[in-house]
Amino acid sequence: MIGHTRYPHLFAPLDLGFTRLKNRALMGSMHTGLEEAEGGFERMAAFFAERARGGVGMIITGGFSPNEEGGLGAKLSTPEEAARHRVVTEAVHAVDPQVKICLQILHAGALADTAACVAPSPVKSRIGRFTPNELTEEGIEKQIADFANCAAMAQQAGYDGVEIIGSAGYLISTFLVERTNRRTDRWGGPWENRLRFAQEVVKRVRATVGPNFIVVFRIPAMDMLEGGLAWDEVVSLGKAVEAAGASIISTHFCWHESPVPTIATMVPRAAFASVTGRLRREVGVPVITSNRINMPQVAEDVLSRGDADIVSMARPMLADPELVLKAAQGREDEINTCIACNQACLDHAFDGRQQVTCLVNPRACFETELKYLPTAAPKRIAVVGAGPAGLAYATVAAQRGHRVTLFDAASEIGGQFNLAKRVPGKEEFHETLRYYRKMIEVHGIDLRLNTRVDADALQAGGFDEVIVATGITPRQPQIEGIGHAKVVPYIDAILGRKPIGRRVAIMGAGGIGFDVAELVTHSGPSAAQDIDTFAREWGIDFQNHPRGGVTGVPRQVAAADRTVYLLQRKTDPVGRHLGRTTGWTHRATLSARQVQMVNGVEYLRIDDAGLHTRVHGEPRLFEVDTVIVCAGQTPQRALHDELQARGVKSTLVGGAFEAAELDAKRAINQASRLAAEV
Ligand code: FAD
Ligand code: NAP
Ligand code: SF4
To answer: How many domains would you assign to the chain?
Structure first.
């Protein structure tokens, strides 16, 4: 296959002695929530089988706790629980016996969701619910035995191996770090003692499962924690777990409390792989790298540089289950790339109320219910608007065999994604547009750009279905002076159609207000495109690797020479409604650039002096040269209303359907589900 020559390292098999991985692509562990859901094992079976069909070499499941006290939800400690996993392992092996599937053993330690949680010392995590119970010597012995038992159960369930997570602030890692391990017995104090628990867990697991079972150990290669692991400790830990019987070491760059983004879209691709490369030169077993590796060429580059033996892609496999297959077949431009937005995966996982899925692929984790089956009755469908909603609808409908004509008034597809992609840190949005451009070609969609369609044209066209995906109109607050020359709508600000002064007030602090603030305060290269800039901005030292990898010196964030006020009417903290796992990164960056965030603002009028307001009831004039309006949107439904008036049936999707709380996640999801049924 073409990809085998284009990506020779990615498609090279890896011999582990007792077994062989067919390629170097790993689907990394992600908690999807299916682990605990009703019928979750059947859904997991379909989810993983689809990824196995998509060509991945090895899969690691979401985390299962070895006992009650280590739990965040799912547990594996009994033969009855093991029996439920059979459907998963059998589904994957039925697709291809060469695909390996390993169960992740996740003992959450101080982060476990139970008052019975345990840790080496009673040190509460900032993000944990409970102060953990300090383990006794017997308690430690029990935890080690439970890890070994969990591995035995995984083996009984038909897994090819286990991954033991020794990082991220979970139990094992809290033994390693002085800040969470205050013990003075043989499990605490000097490094040799802090290391002992990890070593013993691996040793006991290996002794229990025998030599022919994969044991991956996830190591905190750079935990991003002040006072975290020093580099020589990382190396020593790697050597120790290798000696204890680990078959593979997986490098992890995370401690859940750490204030450094490691997977968000503002993190450069493969930013952390060089750290894996350094560790790889110190240990004898194969090493996995991860974080922001979302396309085959990025994986190939990492492997060919010698930075890793295996590349983990977790979210990219949510976004496109066929990523590896498409690479193998030279169809990489058909890959639906993970844009690292976290909106439907991590945000849902942390929120706990919504099923994990993917913004660009709403089928992820819904494989058993959302199916794009070929249609028996092809229709002629007009889709008006080639923003995310129209593109998703057109792609799914055409893929199913319908004949789709896609209209857009603009000269390129993408709708508001053409604005989003201009925001520094959102460069990945280009990939989504590339994907849809390719889908239009692959599925033979009749694309009509520069075509603002009206009801006459649609009626004359004789379509069986009309889909109105015309998006939104930006809201213009009705305040005195809104027509002043210093007022700039966000679209003009982003497209650079109007000059922006040195003193700026941004009216509205939703997602777009934040993006506009990012854009107008930005200076220099985008940190998302430049690892050195990213490292400087977040205080990471890749070269010298101080404890935790972080310098502790204040962040060095370049900023444009502007005074910017980001304003909202609500009295809750500005930015509170941004993404759960990414909002803090945007707030931190804008704060570092001295953007002043003001809530409780009542807008009164705009004039030559600036923006007149009351802030929490007190009069305040923002003396600004420019007021950028980011005050939300209303649906653009004129076409739909006209069609209705003529008795022509049409279906609204995306922003045209509902603009409040609209985002691309909802637009793509709604459109894909409708198109699956037409
Ligand atoms: P739109 O994207 O508005 O597309 C509508 C399309 O219809 C346009 O291309 C328009 O030209 C066309 N059209 C309208 N009328 C006609 C007509 N009569 N004939 C032909 N064509 C017509 N969302 C997220 O989820 N995550 C983000 O990080 C994110 N970042 C954003 C950043 C910015 C700066 C902006 C502006 C938006 C961002 N969004 C984000 C929001 C997201 O882009 C929108 O929710 C999404 O684009 C809505 O999709 P849509 O298809 O409904 O509408
Ligand atoms: P939004 O999140 O709804 O924010 C609109 C802002 O305008 C709010 O701050 C709102 O707060 C203010 N506002 C509303 N009505 C107003 C009025 N009449 N006068 C003055 N201010 C008013 O919408 P958005 O920022 O336009 O973003 C659109 C969608 O794109 C959002 O749903 C968002 O999720 C998505 N998006 C997401 C991201 C991301 O990174 N995930 C980035 C960009 C956009 P107050 O009422 O308190 O003033
Ligand atoms: Fe990637 Fe966003 Fe999909 Fe998560 S929701 S897998 S981050 S594209």
So the answer is: 3
